[in-house]
Amino acid sequence: MGGDDLGELLAAVAREPSSAKLGKLLSAVEREGPRALRFEEILMPKHLSFRIGITGPPGAGKSTLIAQILKRFSQKRVGVIAVDPTSPITNGAVLGDRIRYTESTLNQNIFIRSLGTRGSLGGLAAHAYLLARAFDACKFDITIIETVGVGQVEVDVMNVADVVILVLVPESGDSIQIMKSGVTEIADVIVVNKSDRPGADSLRREIEAQIEKSVLSISATENTGIDPLAEWLNSAMNELNWREMRVAPKKLQAEAVALKRDEIEAEIKKAIHQIETADSLKSLFLLK
Ligand SMILES: Nc1nc2c(ncn2[C@@H]2O[C@H](COP(=O)(O)OP(=O)(O)OP(=O)(O)O)[C@@H](O)[C@H]2O)c(=O)[nH]1
Ligand SMILES: [Mg+2]
């Protein structure tokens, strides 16, 4: 293991948090999975990083919005976890995200990590949780978690965020269906992005008529409406008692349940794969 040992890396990053060490540390955490929680620094981090969850349908402009938010928090150390269940880590879309983030924000204080599907074995929520804990251990001020879509995995991931922003766009079509999904319930703010395009006002009115949540119209590319959102984030970071809420038993239980669900789902997928590739009657029924 040598220099890639998680314990050593945690100690090294605590001494001097360089990007190279941080990258190795995050890889070690992903490799170890929930076993990483045996280290106190991951299980009970002394420093907590404010977690902003950003979710919404594909192409809604989440990454572009994150780049805008990063500009507003250039004085802070910000870690970004981009969870993309549809594309493997080498996929152009994910790399495209990296480029979009970095071109506007080339800055030592920002660290971006993308999570792909890792073959057929799930575990995205688990990885996101553990990486978020690693960003705590590395004393980041803010951790932004981007997920695509509005399904169970997204709700699970957003569950560990301190605040959640749901990004919708006029052309996201089935907005009624999205509004019925669990993501709407856990969102603190709903953002109507691409308000430079037609239909944004009526979408906003439609949302406001259906749910009592604060709705902000923005354009991430035109850079309009972002300041009020950044101000809201700032005050949530300074005023919300998110540190206490983070360690509330209910929240920790939800995290543990999702980790366990991930682990068991991965086992089921592995067993199904073994069955599908079985070369004897005994191995078909997973007998030794
Ligand atoms: N007109 C307009 N286009 C936008 C706006 N925000 C983002 N876009 C464009 O929408 C496209 C998708 O933007 P992304 O930021 O990659 O969207 P995303 O939600 O991160 O996409 P995925 O991660 O792939 O789901 C890009 O071509 C952006 O330039 C906006 O406010 N107005
Ligand atoms: Mg994106």
Can you characterise this structure?
- The protein has 288 residues and is of the alpha/beta class.
- It folds into two domains: 1-43, no CATH class; 45-245, Rossmann fold.
- It has helices spanning 6-15, 19-32, 40-43, 62-72, 92-105, 124-137, 152-158, 175-180, 182-186, 200-210, 226-239, 242-246, 249-276, 281-284; strands at 50-56, 78-83, 110-115, 142-148, 163-168, 189-192, 214-217.
- The protein has a seven-stranded parallel beta sheet, with helices on both faces.
- Strand 6, helix 10 and strand 7 (214-217) form a beta-alpha-beta unit.
- Helix 6 (124-137) runs parallel beside helix 7 (152-158).
- The longest helix is centred in the last third of the chain and has 28 residues, at 249-276.
- The radius of gyration is 20 Å and the shape is globular.
- The two termini are 31 Å apart.
- The site of magnesium ion (MG) has 4 residues, from helix 4.
- Guanosine-5'-triphosphate is lined by residues 58-64, 93, 97, 148, 193-194, 196-197, 219-222.
CATH architecture of the largest domain: 3-Layer(aba) Sandwich
From N to C, what is the helix and strand string? HHHEHEHEHEHEHHEHEHHHH
Oligomer: single chain
Uncertain runs: 87-97, 102-106
What is the CA-CA span between the terminal residues?
31 Å
Helix tally? 14
Task: Name its key features.
288 residues; alpha/beta; Rossmann fold; 2 domains; 7-stranded parallel beta sheet; 14 helices; globular; binds guanosine-5'-triphosphate; binds magnesium ion
Please sum up the structure shown.
This protein has 288 residues and is α/β, with parallel strands linked by helices. It is built from 14 helices and 7 strands. The longest helix has 28 residues, at 249-276.
